[in-house]
Recover the amino acids of this structure.
């Protein structure tokens, strides 16, 4: 039986979702998996929704995760998490950054950002992991390493040797940013 696993990365433009999906895909390929990845950029340069589907297993035939088959919703922003919760399979997991980014309608004062999203997500999906990615990225030394902090948190729930994560980061992250990203990854692992 082909046991394909599905991870949906979700957030808004500028959060490093595409790099995170590249690193995740590289890790799974180094682990010997067949990997397919698909990205959707919705006005990403203006803070719009960005998703990336990562599927891995013995043999993967499609890069798009079928509705209701997301094993892990790996989200970089709370409101985006709520948007994609319906795609989660029964018994699926959520790993989410505690960050709130106001969409244009909220920034313009036309709507309010929903209150108590962390509690609502945790209520809907027991066992949700909520990570304060920004605080940990700041502790690492660069607020742009939130995506790497979150990858560290994700690495805790995937059965992949930590050395593969470190090799992938060494390969995918520019040398001048490697040290701060390795520190961010460690902080995420320990979150």
């Amino acid at each position: 039986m082909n046991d394909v696993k599905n991870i949906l990365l979700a957030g808004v433009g500028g959060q490093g979702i595409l790099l995170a999906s590249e690193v995740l895909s590289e890790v799974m390929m180094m682990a010997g998996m067949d990997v397919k990845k698909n990205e959707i950029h919705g006005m990403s340069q203006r803070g719009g929704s960005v998703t990336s589907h990562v599927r891995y297993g013995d043999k993967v035939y499609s890069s798009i995760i079928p509705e209701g088959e997301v094993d892990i919703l790996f989200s970089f922003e709370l409101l985006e998490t709520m948007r994609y919760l319906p795609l989660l399979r029964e018994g699926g997991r959520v790993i989410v950054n505690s960050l709130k980014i106001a969409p244009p309608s909220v920034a313009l004062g036309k709507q309010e950002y929903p209150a108590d999203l962390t509690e609502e997500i945790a209520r809907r999906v027991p066992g949700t992991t909520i990570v304060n990615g920004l605080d940990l990225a700041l502790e690492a030394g660069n607020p742009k390493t939130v995506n790497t902090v979150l990858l560290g948190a994700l690495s805790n729930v995937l059965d992949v040797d930590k050395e593969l994560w470190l090799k992938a980061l060494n390969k995918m992250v520019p040398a001048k940013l490697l040290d701060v990203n390795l520190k961010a990854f460690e902080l995420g692992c320990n979150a």
User: Anything to note?
Assistant: The chain is about 40% helix and 25% strand.
